[in-house]
Every structure is written in C-alpha cells, then in structure tokens.
Amino acid sequence: MTSRVSGKGGFTLLELLVVIVISSLIVLTVTLVFRSIIQNTKKAAVKIENRLYKSGRNRVIWKQIASQIPYKNSIDESSFVYGSSDSLLLVSPFSLTGNYRKGLIIAYYIVQLDLKKKYTLHCWELPIKDDEFSSDLAQELTALREKRVFNLLAFIHRQQDKEEISLFENARKISFEFLYPETESKKKIVWKKQWQKDLPPKAIRINIINSKEETEKITVPLLLPDTS
Fold first, then answer.
1. Residue range 115-119: average pLDDT?
2. Which of 85, 97, 86 lies closest to 124, judged by CA?
3. DSSP SS3 for 134
4. Alpha helix segments (H runs only) across 70-170
5. In this structure, what DSSP letter does residue 86 have?
6. How much is the pLDDT for 5?
7. Taking the model in full, what pTM does it have?
8. Which stretches does DSSP call E strand in 11-138?
9. pLDDT tens per residue across span 139-164
10. How far apart are CA 197 and CA 142, in angstroms?
11. Potential cystine with 201: which of 20, 47, 178, 205 (Cβ 3.0-4.6 Å)?
C-alpha cells in the first residue's frame, strides 16, 4: 500500500515531488524571461544613448565648422584658416562645450594615431584675446597655414583656459576632405585633401571608420566669401 504524507485525502510523496519540480521549472523560466527582458532593455537603452550622444556630438561639430568666420589679425593678412587630411584650423563664435558665448575662439582639430594603430580626433579650443593674439600665436598660425614649422605644444599650452575635447576615439580611420570646383571645369566639383590657400571650399567633410568598420560622414556646407 502507498504511504501518505498526511492523513486521509493528502498527497503522496511522489505527487508532492512532481509539484515541487514543476514549480521550480516555472520559477526558473520566469526568471530567465525577466533576465532576458532586462538585458534587452539595457541593450536598447545603450543603443539609444549612443545614438543621442553621436547625434549631439555631430551636431555641435557641424555648428562650429558651419559658423566659422574668415578672421584676420590685420587687414593685409589672409584669414586664419587651414585644412589638410588630418587637421583643421578655424575661428568661430561657437564652442563645442560652451555653445555661443561672448568672443571668438580658435578651434584646432587634429587626427592622432596611437601605439595601437587607432585614430582619435581631438579638438583644442582657445579663446581669442586682443592682448594675446598679436605676437607668437599669430606667427604660429601663419606658419601652420603656410605649411612651415608649427609648434603644436606651444599652441596647446599657451593659455590656461584652453580646452581639449576628444571627439572620436579608437577609430580605424579619420580624415578631412574639402569640396572644390574642378580647375578645368567649374561645373564639376571634387573632394580634395587640402584647403586651397585663400580659396574657401564649398563644404568640409569628416570621414570616420569606427572600430566596427562602420562608416560615418559629417558634411558641412560653407558660405564663406571667396577671397581669391
């Protein structure tokens, strides 16, 4: 005769074990489902956060480049602007971190390669002050524009209120391009690797290939006057 756990009308030990096993499986299944939901929610939140970060970062870069002005230290000098495949120098009223504020800033973008063969785009911002922009700094900017020796460290450490911003990190490739009409045919335009002296491009483009081999492009149209 089968033994009973309790008196008349109770469950057998086997039935009780079956109930315990089924209950455990239900709890385990529900736990796994909730864990999966939480993980998916976290992944979705991270993706949204990354999209918002990229969107915000790209928007402020776009604003700074688009709002640049052809700043001159004197009437006779050409504008302080320079661009190559790995650097961009401009003067703008827009700061990447402070938005529009009183006064102008010098923004210097430079692509740097680290020991792991990864690229980072840095930007240094320095406020322009009338009493500090007439000697060595002006000469350094002119040297940069004319492809002569440029003391980057002196430029970066010139002012205490400078600011360094890292925009893209661990990228496989970062480069600048400049849109110009073809010399022979003004109707055709091409992307070039150098800002032509005293001739502003129609647009500037930043090309980024990230660590996942995804390509990202930031294209900024320019409305600078033609000083040629």
1. 87
2. 97
3. coil
4. 136-145, 152-156
5. T
6. 46
7. 0.68
8. 82-84, 87-95, 99-113, 119-127
9. 666 666 666 656 666 666 665 566 77
10. 12
11. 178
Q: How many residues does the chain have?
A: 228
Secondary structure of residue 209 in the 3-state scheme: strand
Q: What does the alpha-carbon distance between residue 192 and residue 198 come to, in Å, rounded to a whole number? A: 15
DSSP 196: P
What's the confidence (pLDDT) of residue 225?
63
| pLDDT (tens digit per residue) in 120-141 | 998 888 877 655 555 566 666 6
What tokens does 13 get?
A: 């030990």
> 216: helix, coil or strand?
strand
| Closest to 104 in 3D by CA, of 79, 129, 81, 121 | 129
- Within 8 A by CB and 6+ apart from 66, the residues are 220, 221, 222
23-67: per-residue pLDDT in tens?
888 888 888 887 777 776 666 555 544 554 566 788 889 999 999
Task: Give the integer Cα–Cα distance in Å for 168 and 119.
Answer: 8
Residues β-bridged to residue 171: 119
Is it the case that residue 99 has pLDDT exceeding 90?
no
* Residues 74/77/83/84 CA torsion (nearest 10 deg): -140
